Amino acid sequence: MFILELVQTLEQHKVKYAIVGGYAVALHGAVRGTIDVDIVVQLNKSAFRKAEMALLELGLKPRLPLSSEDVFNFREEYIRNKNLTAWSFVNADKPTDMVDIIITEDLNKIKTVIKTLGGKKIQIASIDDLIRMKSKTGRKQDIEDVKALKELQ
């Protein structure tokens, strides 16, 4: 299962992370289908570089020709001027292997909980933080996720 490979590789590269997005919603217990895995890391150059190295090791490549240094150094400009909220990676040979690093959030400001999947402990964002994050987007799916998460509280 790709999410388990991802978590193992992040941990091998000593990346502090939290799963957010649809997988986190599902791991909290809401019915939710998703393909890509969304993660949040610490907003520092080292964390971005370690995450990049882990994803490259998994065979994923950035969708945009941006390095960790580019994303870190120009993050605020990309958010403000390009509406870039995630640094996206995909495996061209296995297109369902996709990871988005959410660049608008800092792991240091997110409360996390541990869930178990396939015998592996996975760190995910708390329900409150998922609701906060998803409430900002205005996307239809995120509105539905917020409703489902509130029912779980």
Could you walk me through the main structural features you see in this protein, from its secondary elements to its overall organization?
- The structure is a single chain.
- The protein is of the alpha+beta class and 153 residues long.
- It has one domain: Beta Polymerase, domain 2 (2-Layer Sandwich), CATH 3.30.460.
- It contains six helices and seven strands.
- The strands form two sheets. The protein has a five-stranded mixed sheet. The chain has a two-stranded antiparallel sheet with strand order 6-7.
- β4 and β5 (94-102) form a beta hairpin.
- It is globular.
- The protein starts with a helix and ends with a helix.
Helix content bin: 40-55%
Name given to the CATH architecture: 2-Layer Sandwich
Q: Main beta sheet: strand number and arrangement?
A: 5 strands, mixed
- Total strands: the figure is 7
Overall tally of domains: 1
Question: What does the secondary structure layout of this molecule look like, with pairings?
Answer:
Blueprint: H1 2-12, E1 17-20, H2 21-28, E2 37-41, H3 45-57, E3 61-62, H4 68-82, E4 86-91, E5 94-102, E6 112-117, E7 120-125, H5 127-135, H6 140-152
